[in-house]
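Budget justification note: compute hours in this period were largely spent on complex prediction jobs such as the one shown. Inputs:
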Amino acid sequence: MNFDIRIETTVKDAFENAKNLVMRLPDLTKDFFKYSIIGYIIEAKSLKDSFIYAKYWALIWGNIFKFVGKLLFKRGPTGIIRELRRYPWILQLLGVTKLLRRITHGRKGIYLESTGLLIHSITVTLVEKLEEVFYQPELLLISEDLVPPEIATAMGLKVWLVEAMGILLPFLNPEAALNFIDEAENAGMNPDSCSFVKSAVGMVIKEQMPKGSALVSSNMPCDAGMTSYSYIQKKFDVPIYRVDVPYHFYNERAEKLFVEDLKGMIAFLEEHTPGRIDWTKLREICETRNRMMEIEGELWDMMQARPAPLASEAVWLSHLWHFYMFPGHKAGIQLFKRLVELAQVNLTAKIPAVENEKYRAVLWNPPFPHFVDIFNQVERAHGITLIMDSMSYNRHEPIDTSTPETMLNGLARIIMQGPMVRHTRGPAENYLDDIFRCYKQFDLDMVWIANHVGCKSGQAMNGILREKCREMKIPLLILDYDLVDPRIVSHGGMMSQVDDFMENVMKNKQPLAVAH
Amino acid sequence: MNVFQELLESPQNHLVEQAVSDGRIPIGYSCSFVPEAFLMADKLVPVRLHAPGVAGTEIADIYLSNFICTYARSLLEFAIDDRFDLIQGWVFVPSCAHMQRLYDNLEYLKKPAFNHILDVPRKVTEATIAWQAEELRMLADKLSTHFGVDMSDDSLMKAIREWNEFAKIIQSIGELRKKPSPPITGTEFQTLLMAALVSPKNLILPKIQEFRKEIEQRDGVGQFRSRLMVMGSHLHDPEFIRVIESQGGLVVADLFCTGSIPGFKPVEVNGNPIRILAEHTFKKTLCPRMMEDFDRRLQTIIDTVKEYKVDGIVIEIIKFCDLWGVDSMPMVSALRKEGIPVLKLEREYSMGGEGQLRTRVQAFIESMGK
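Corresponding output:
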């Protein structure tokens, strides 16, 4: 009897699903063309733009095919199926050109090229990372995102950042992390904790996170992130080392303590992984990182000009991806060099990246992964140009590579004084002064706070910030949203907040274009 | 017991007032990583910050937002309302994001003349114990300069001995709860302990000793359906325990910031007092803010369950507390794996939703077959 009911239900469900699919076909087809290369070519403003877009589209797909081909060759068709069952989220990566399409909408010339270049660079390095997971699992170290990977890389280990997919997947599909978030909440994690942490934990629970020989985590940047590693460690059942950044870190005493902690981490990794510290390799990585920062500095200098020669993802996403995930990687140097060249062309010719640049903005706190194209939309709707963001705004002395000790000192400082880390510890000034310094340095018109509902530390600073901004006459938009979960505040809700702010605060009643 | 209840009715009770009129200096603190004994040196008086009867946090919500735990918001609200006017100095610990930002907002809105953050590390190694000792030394120097108090080793050692007296009696009362028929309820114990934490020790000690004698004469507190342990975030209002006990669950053990496990083991008086206090603080405090303490905490809970013959555990978490909220996920599964029934409750700092609490506890006790 039960068996019959089950069959009937299954058939009914299949029929309903098929019916839904058929009914959605016109929309799906429309979407497909909208986000396909055909859609772009139809919309493109010039043949040159079509060529630029097509070039990066082809390069990105070329990389993906190369990756799939290699996997097919090494593992065979059943191997691929096995890997896809283990890591089903990999399929989301096929949406990378859709991401390219979303964030290049309406862009042209050098600005378009910079975005294509960046997405291509992300694809190349991501494929490299996935190949490490597949082909060198014995060298895999699972690490928290704010523990920089330079040291482990110099030990010959392949670093997988636990939280990386929590950011990347919503870029590709706004709803990609939802099942991970739900999984974590169902397992008992408090629903009000950060969704970024929940998505990482959910991925671990679903056993879709690569598993390495050891774990490295820290007390950064927040309580939820730090505490989640008790669970992750139990689940992985591998040894863990936790680095501890002091609250007061702008002093030699803290640096000394933290360097000792890093030495402890090296000893731990040598004991529990095949990795061995290679100081020469660490020197190379640090020097590449220094060079990357130097080139990025040139880009920043140019970004101070009005109108800005480049904007948005070329600034924030290039930093986020290459400095956090691949510091010291040659791909970063190549990308930043090319971005500087492109910016120089625009600067010399006085061509704005954003047509009709009207307002220059800084985004504080992590960006909007599930609504990554918001800046594309607001630049077209209101002429708002994203010049800088808190995750990129990180200046420090180059690492002194003369001895192992000086390298560790330099890395310790970079970790302790890095974005999010310095913003979530020490007195309020660490958070506030940075915003005002950035505002002045880049000649900005407004400050945007990405007011992630799960970030308690940031939420509790808004009152003071609001009053300080009023005193200093800085227009402030506190944009409520959830970092990874679009169900909390919809894209429409986020855009309404921007529109209201533009109308009520900036008195910009007539948008330049209807972009949404 | 009424004596202790009265002491909890306002954030600064009449014993604190008496101490101030005697020329003593109340120092407010909110975290167990601030060693109480340290703040008992010379004329100093440690006062655990609490916000009894807080009715709303309207102003604090504007600054701290609605997403910060109600304990932090309540303290800020009381501070803005001048309800802590006798407190002459504040000592915070960056125990969590909420406390850090409470410090920042207090500095901004009502800058205290003395406001300090004790930078307590989040793991225990030889290096971090040394760091903690240095932190205490710096605080001692600051207190000495600001208030002119004697923070010398001798003075600190004297304070440690005084604190030990207090800890011994609290511990001895706590031990009585191991009995098959304890002479004290969880509500009484929590009232006594909280009163002791918010009052000058020398003034409240005679009352505690008297109470100790009184309960020695008792046979027990009557029949209860089960023996429970409560653990979790800050719990200052004994009313929470009273509601649990009203459903037949006698609370015999507590592991929270103002509970007795494992916090009242006397300090070993041997060596440099600052170093001793640094070590002791790490030993006596079990909090999820400590990154590497999960297994020690779990083991302590399991041992407590055995020692106190606990039937089930109630984990109480203040809404928006990420430390306890996230930590409870592996903790609940680990405890259930050990065969210990667990009830996880979310609550606000001030007592509310009594009916819901009653129903949940009743159902929990029934689910244990009691």
